[in-house]
Amino acid sequence: MDTTPEPFESVIAGPQGSGVAPSDGPPLLSLRGISKSFGAVQAMRHVDLDVPAGQVTAIIGDNGAGKSTLIKTISGIWAQSSGHILWKGQEVHIHTPRDASDLGIATVYQDLSLCDNLDIVQNMYLGRETTKKGLLNEIEMEIATRKTLSDLSVSTVKSVRQLVGSLSGGQRQAVAVARAVMRESELVILDEPTAALGVSQTAQVLELIHTLKSHGLAVIVISHNLSDVFAVADRIAVMYLGTLVHEGPISQYDTASAVELITTGRSSRVPNTVATSV
Ligand SMILES: Nc1ncnc2c1ncn2[C@@H]1O[C@H](COP(=O)(O)OP(=O)(O)OP(=O)(O)O)[C@@H](O)[C@H]1O
Ligand SMILES: [Mg+2]
């Protein structure tokens, strides 16, 4: 089995290359009537959501609202109990993380799953090392790692041979994103990417999200931080008690209406609340 990752050049070209979102055609990802139950707990109810390429979609909502359940369903951690997932307009069945990554869905979870005692290159290639004549091809992996970080405009890392344990929170996030997008990715999902970060590191991660978007990738970001959301998102989807209660372009919302939607599931300040069951 060839486990050599695709060179990043092909990734960063993105699905559109130009970085311009397509104005027609089906959305990159569509969810239709997605529900998920854990025994008696219904974590997600009839979620409909479109995720366009070249845009950042923020999923917001209170603790336990169903945000992680939603992205874990898209990422193949578990299958939905009912409903359909469409990728570029075609129905797909995502049963495993491998299914998701084969489609071009890359997910960065909050714990990042990096190994502190390994350097950046080793983390980037963990479990899918490049070999040449039976030996690790360190030079190729190092060059590709440098190229990936530079394509993502990550300039603060001094050496790709630095141990990940010595990196700052923002740099660790950048390495995790770089690793996720090494394979051809069209959708990058970030769960709380700035939760543990200070001001300047947060700015770096928001910049990284901008870079992904400018290469035409779709980004889904889960965040509790509304100032980050308003800084980076093109669209907002609000979850409340397992239901997607409101969804639309960022220009429809302000902090007050977003807080109202998060805490009560409705807001008189925004048009067309889609919720009926809360
Ligand atoms: N593996 C599981 N088994 C049972 N119940 C679960 C499981 N995962 C999530 N739930 C339940 O599903 C609901 C939604 O949880 P989820 O983790 O999706 O919330 P969230 O919006 O990500 O919250 P947070 O902001 O706290 O991360 C919660 O009531 C939670 O207890
Ligand atoms: Mg969560």
Helix % is 25-40%
Strand content: 15-25%
- Return the structural class: alpha/beta
Output the number of helix runs. 9
- Which geometry do the CA atoms define? globular
Bound heterogens, unique: adenosine-5'-triphosphate, magnesium ion
Rounded mean pLDDT score: 86
Low-confidence stretches: 1-22
N-to-C CA distance: 49 Å
Structural features, described:
A hairpin with a 2-residue loop joins β1 (29-38) and β2 (41-51). By secondary structure, this protein is an alpha/beta fold. Mean pLDDT is 86; it is low at 1-22. The protein is built from nine helices and twelve strands. A six-stranded mixed beta sheet has the order 6-9-10-3-11-12, with helices on both faces. Strands 2-1-4-5 form a four-stranded antiparallel beta sheet, with helices on one face. It has helices at residues 8-12, 67-74, 97-103, 120-124, 138-151, 169-181, 199-214, 226-232, 255-264, and strands at 29-38, 41-51, 56-61, 82-87, 90-92, 105-108, 131-132, 135-136, 187-191, 218-222, 235-240, 243-249.
